[in-house]
Amino acid sequence: MSRLISPVLMLAVFACAPAEAPAPPAPETTGGSAAGDLGPPQGEPIHAVLTHAPEVPPPTGRSAPAKVIVELEVEEKVMPISEGVDYTFWTFGGEVPGSFIRIRQGDTVEFHLQNHPDSKMPHNIDLHAVTGPGGGAASSFTAPGHESQFTFKALNEGLYVYHCATAPVGMHIANGMYGLILVEPPEGLPPVDREYYVMQGDFYTVGKYREKGLQPFDMQKAIEENATYVLFNGSEGALVGDNAITAEVGETVRLYVGNGGPNLVSSFHVIGEIFDKVYYEGGTRFQENVQTTLIPAGGAAMVEFYVEAPGTYILVDHSIFRAFNKGALGMMKVEGDDALDIYSGKEVDSVYLADKVEPSAPIGEATAAAAKGALTKAQQVEAGGILFKGTCSTCHQDSGAGVKGVFPPLAGSDYLMADKARAIGVVINGLNGPVTVNGEEYNSVMPPMSQLNDDEVANILTYVRNSWGNEGDAVSAEEVAKVRATSERPAGAAH
Ligand SMILES: [Cu+2]
Known about the structure:
It is built from twelve helices and 23 strands. It is α/β, with parallel strands linked by helices. The strands form five sheets. Strands 1, 2, 3, 5, 7 and 11 form a six-stranded mixed beta sheet that branches. It has a six-stranded mixed beta sheet with strand order 12-10-14-19-16-17. Strands 13-21-20-15-18 form a five-stranded mixed beta sheet. It starts with a helix and ends in a 9-residue tail after the last helix. Mean pLDDT is 89; it is low at 1-19. Bound molecules: copper (II) ion.
């Protein structure tokens, strides 16, 4: 019940509106680009406040159109895309997604696009908020070390994507060249307690998911729309652990969610929340009580919800392999008093989220050490333990004891310890049919863990062979590679 009352109370307290005042009815039509506050700019020119995700600039707070100056610099830079994995991003403003721009309908925007002298490529910008051929692209083509300027009037309110449109366009977008521009309606958006900026994008690397090192862009995978990563805010860790967005019980949260693509449509969902409102496609109308909203490539939506219960809420693309196997997972941490009438239960299940919950330093350390040829068994055990939790423990259990008659034990397993190469083969190729472990017969199916790379398999098996009383030597990535090259892959398993 409090859920229904408190927004009204908040209005009463903060906006001094009488508690019984009904919300103003939505207009039949806003008039699109033909209506609104479209007079000449007033007052001194204003420099737009730009923010990096997940921050959003404050409301413009203006009641008249102004001349707004936006300065945005393109920078090509190497940044982490995942733990131990680097990528050469092309950015608007130094980060992916590009800086958030916030203006008001009717504003005249003087846009300055700079291309950093260290850039190797020319770039430009196409803002979907612009009315005019190319959305600014033709007027903003900018060579490294140069600046372009063009001016546009923001005729339509809404939440719009901007992106680079320099050939090959797909490649510029795939490298992270997109962001959001919000054109507020003349009266502003209804006030909320928290606003955040989240933008999805798909990425294509030569190496497979989480294969370490600097990974180049893979044009063929991009053409085939075979994404290696699907990410919120440009990297796997951008919205997890200490980087999670936050809120407090009793607050209303608005997310500005964009999708840069280049290829994939997002089925945006927050696990544990229902969107009270979705301004679908970034437009003026809202739908209410929505579970999952579709965000097209090159499109956006505003979603709003009131938070009732504390805990961790998970942002995902509900095309769910993207969330658990390509990185499309973020978090919102809500603090406040328990609301046991609304939800009584345990916190997020750490087994099911596993290594997604916190960026795991030991995995990165093991990778760095391996690259230098200085990987120790202790580092492998530590990294392998984290990976085991996320990959194997659902079946074999955290304790390695398995489940009697269903999942064989790894703790004290004679089958595991007798033959190292065979154990590697079980992990990468799976196992089915009768197998005897410690005198007990199992006849079930273990699917191939083909999502794991050689380093990961080596670390997991080093952990397994040295835990719960097991004692064995380390397993190296080379040994895994050898088994992979010489064993027959089951049908359907990746290489
Ligand atoms: Cu570009």
